[in-house]
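## retry 2 of 3
previous attempt timed out at serialization; input unchanged, resubmitting
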Amino acid sequence: MSELETAQQHLELALQRFEDALARRLAATGGDESTAQLDSEREKLARDVGTLQAECDRLGSALSDAEREQQLLRAVNEDVAQRLDGSINELNRLLEG
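## retry succeeded, writing output
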């Protein structure tokens, strides 16, 4: 699993924890829990979601950078392979001739 997928999974889990926590609170208090307490918990979970979203964005950017670098390295590798093949062919030609 990539880091981006992991971050997305963390985000989904945080949202699920929020929904579960709210359901538990409402069930435990019969819906009478103070709005201030619910707002506080909602704000904390919203910060967690924001943190996870920022991590997901950062990882997405890092993944894009890594993919660009991988493409560059692949091109360099192909160039080196062609040069080596040419050198080997030249050496074989000189040895045979």
